[in-house]
Every structure is written in structure tokens, then in C-alpha cells.
Design a protein that fits this description.
120 residues, Arc Repressor Mutant, subunit A, 5 helices
Length: 120
């Protein structure tokens, strides 16, 4: 076992943070994973910027990937809790999920608050 010694007066001791509960941590990781793909991020941005649900046909038309690839990305976003889907006949309509947006905002807000405290 190696004992690490902290040099005297080297720097400020970091503020301790409580770990996230497993369920919350898994949810936040899922959100960031879903948004970690450039195409998924742009699909999500498109959906989240709409005032009403957007038809999947309009999503497919805006990206230079196949319809099955768009369906895969939408499934990942849906499973992460970032979008919801409703059906009207044969068409699927996607909207941003308010709960997912809140969780994402809370996670980012917590990071911003910690960085502001550190800078301030």
C-alpha cells in the first residue's frame, strides 16, 4: 500500500460532494449518453425547439441518414426520457419530455453552481 502525502500549502482542499443516489446517477448518465452522439444532439435540439410535437417524417427529412438510423436515435432519446412520442394514424410525433428537460437542467445547474462558487 502506498501512502500519499499532501505537500504543505500546495493548494486548497477540494469541497466534498455527496455522491448521487444510484437511480439519479443512472438517469443523468443515460441523458448525457443519449446527447453524446452529434446526430442525436441535433435531433433533440430540433424536437426541443418546436412549439408542438414534430412528425417523424419532418425529422427524417432534415438529416442525411437513413430512416432506420433516425428511428434508432429517437428510441435512444425516448429511453433516456428526453422525448415522448404520440401516434396519429401511421405517423409518430415527437416532443421534448418536460421531466427529462428538468433532470438535464438540474444536472447542469448543479455543475454551474459549483463552478460559480469556485470562481467567486
Amino acid at each position: 500500500m502506498t501512502i500519499k502525502l499532501r505537500p504543505v500549502n500546495c493548494c486548497t482542499i477540494p469541497t466534498a460532494t455527496d455522491p448521487l443516489a444510484a437511480a439519479e446517477r443512472n438517469q443523468v448518465v443515460s441523458l448525457f449518453h443519449a446527447l453524446g452522439d452529434p446526430t442525436r444532439l441535433e435531433i433533440f435540439r430540433l424536437i426541443a425547439s418546436q412549439h408542438a410535437p414534430i412528425c417523424v417524417c419532418d425529422i427524417v427529412d432534415r438529416f442525411d441518414v437513413t430512416q432506420p438510423t433516425i428511428s434508432h436515435h429517437l428510441r435512444v432519446l425516448r429511453e433516456a426520457g428526453l422525448v415522448t412520442v404520440s401516434r396519429q394514424g401511421i405517423w409518430a410525433y415527437y416532443a421534448a419530455d418536460a421531466r427529462g428537460l428538468t433532470t438535464l437542467g438540474d444536472a447542469l445547474g448543479a455543475l454551474q453552481l459549483k463552478s460559480e462558487v469556485a470562481v467567486g
